[in-house]
């Protein structure tokens, strides 16, 4: 185990004797609300730690941490350990911090060591703890803190951290093996093709690794990425990063459907945690390889041209999507979750759900029965030089084979979808998301790949 806390104290720096003695400084702010990092294992009122299991890092397992809200047991911790990584079918939180990283080192052992440290850190921060026991202010005055500190007083916030491996982790741009992983590179981890209309920015595309941190609180999500990147100083560097808000999907039937920045309910017809057979058919890799129990994550930064869309009539908008703006019901009638009737005709014997509408073209019926788990977020990143909003959807989809589960649908949408006129794809990434991390001593994300 490679906890930063176990690293020896750094040698005394020249002149360090001149540093002020701050051992008597006052304690900084304590818990503010909820189950805070400090309250959980300290003296905070209201928090109850029930010893129902120990993680390999020696702390109570996630489900053990509970608080009481209106007399009912409540936990805002999502278990880090399991057959699948959290952040896939676990209920989509409201906030996202997504980062794609370049791996700088050529040393496989250094990479494995980092992944091991990341898993140890994730097991802690997903419980609302600092990265190490020493935390952000308990270590040596002469060494950088072992946690950056910005989430110290905040609760776990249902934080999930999902790690993925890009194709470029396996082979470089000359197809040369990196880290001896080439023979294990899955065939499904393709270079995504150019799709009609793509205007991708290389600075917002690709990456050797990805970190998807989702939480109720943006500061908790950013803290996760910030600390994993900090721990990887000199081994990885951030290639691009995207913040998201207002989840545009629901991954559980217990969640309501949120709206995208065009004002439509988004995520109605999605794979949901409650349909294990569909998840096995469309989401989880089931091939006995190191990816068994994992999935593939497609990320697309899709700018939505608000200025044009906002001038479209309500009827025009609904015909483009194929659903009503109010309830999200299909134009063929019923409620939000009523199945669309694509055969139904409207005025002039034309299909009531237009042939170029988004839901018709994206529906499994049009795509050989293919389904995907969508887990995207809205984004708003200021304006361009003309004052137009740079805002849209950071689309995330997870599928068990992007060659059949994503590429054909994206090609169809890019060519025929009436919605495409209002969209610009500006960033892209495809990552193999390995299975979950077991609660065994020393287990780490991607272990099946490196030790299989
Ligand atoms: C390649 C896949 C998809 C991309 C890219 C995509 C972009 C995109 N979608 C919306 C808004 C909506 N999408 C909706 C449904 C829907 N979209 C996809 C796939 C992609 N969308 C699928 C598979 C589905 C489900 C189709 C079905 O089975 O009925 C909807 C309707 C509500 C819902 O079911 O979620 C909306 C609204 C935007 C704005 C967008 C790009 C910015
Ligand atoms: Fe869509």
Automatic annotation (TrEMBL):
NCBIfam families found in the cross-reference section: Dyp_perox_fam, tat_substr_1
Residue span, Dyp-type peroxidase C-terminal domain: 257-437
Biased composition (Basic and acidic residues): 1-10, 19-30
Source organism, top-level taxon: Bacteria
Keyword line: Heme, Iron, Lyase, Metal-binding, Oxidoreductase, Peroxidase, Signal
Organism expressing this protein natively: Kocuria gwangalliensis
Name this protein carries in UniProt: Deferrochelatase
Cofactor: heme b
Localization annotation: Cell envelope
Region entry Disordered, spans: 1-37
InterPro entries assigned: Dimeric_a/b-barrel (IPR011008), Dyp_perox_C (IPR048328), Dyp_perox_N (IPR048327), Dyp_peroxidase (IPR006314), EfeB/EfeN (IPR006313), TAT_signal (IPR006311)
Family assignment from sequence similarity: Belongs to the DyP-type peroxidase family.
Main localization (coarse): other
Cofactor comment text: Binds 1 heme b (iron(II)-protoporphyrin IX) group non-covalently per subunit.
Catalytic activity: heme b + 2 H(+) = protoporphyrin IX + Fe(2+)
Function: Involved in the recovery of exogenous heme iron. Extracts iron from heme while preserving the protoporphyrin ring intact.
Pfam families, A to Z: Dyp_perox_C, Dyp_perox_N
């Amino acid at each position: 185990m490679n906890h930063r806390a176990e690293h020896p104290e750094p040698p005394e720096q020249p002149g360090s004797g001149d540093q002020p003695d701050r051992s008597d400084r006052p304690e900084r702010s304590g818990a503010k609300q909820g189950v805070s990092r400090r309250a959980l294992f300290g003296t905070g009122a209201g928090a109850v730690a029930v010893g129902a299991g120990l993680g390999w890092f020696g702390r109570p397992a996630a489900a053990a941490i509970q608080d009481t809200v209106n007399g009912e047991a409540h936990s805002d911790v999502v278990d880090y350990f399991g057959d699948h990584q959290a952040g896939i079918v676990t209920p989509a939180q409201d906030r996202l911090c997504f980062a794609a990283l370049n791996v700088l080192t050529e040393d496989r052992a250094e990479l494995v060591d980092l992944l091991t440290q990341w898993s140890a850190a994730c097991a802690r921060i997903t419980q609302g703890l600092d990265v190490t026991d020493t935390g952000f202010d308990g270590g040596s005055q002469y060494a950088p803190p072992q946690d950056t500190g910005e989430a110290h007083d905040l609760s776990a916030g249902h934080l999930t951290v999902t790690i993925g491996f890009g194709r470029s982790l396996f082979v470089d741009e000359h197809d040369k093996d990196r880290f001896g992983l080439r023979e294990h590179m899955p065939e499904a981890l393709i270079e995504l093709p150019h799709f009609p209309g793509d205007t991708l920015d290389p600075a917002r595309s690709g990456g050797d690794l990805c970190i998807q941190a989702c939480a109720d609180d943006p500061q908790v999500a950013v803290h996760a990425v910030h600390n994993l990147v900090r721990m990887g100083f000199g081994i990885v560097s951030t290639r691009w990063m995207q913040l998201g808000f207002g989840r545009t999907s629901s991954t559980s039937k217990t969640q309501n459907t949120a709206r995208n920045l065009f004002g439509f309910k988004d995520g109605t017809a999605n794979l949901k945690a409650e349909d294990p057979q569909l998840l096995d058919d469309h989401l989880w890799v089931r091939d006995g390889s190191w990816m068994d129990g994992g999935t593939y994550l497609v990320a697309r930064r899709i700018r939505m041209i608000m200025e044009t869309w906002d001038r479209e009539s309500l009827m025009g908008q609904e015909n483009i999507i194929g659903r009503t703006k109010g309830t999200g019901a299909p134009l063929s009638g019923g409620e939000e979750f009523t199945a669309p009737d694509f055969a139904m005709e409207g005025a002039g014997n034309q299909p009531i759900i237009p042939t170029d509408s988004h839901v018709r073209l994206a529906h499994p019926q049009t795509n050989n029965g293919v389904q995907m788990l969508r887990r995207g977020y809205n984004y708003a990143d200021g304006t361009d030089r003309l004052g137009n909003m740079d805002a849209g959807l950071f689309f995330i989809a997870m599928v068990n084979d992007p060659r059949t589960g994503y590429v054909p649908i994206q090609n169809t949408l890019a060519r025929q979808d009436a919605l495409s006129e209002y969209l610009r794809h500006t960033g892209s990434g495809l990552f193999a998301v390995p299975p979950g991390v077991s609660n065994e001593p020393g287990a780490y994300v991607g272990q099946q790949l490196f030790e299989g």
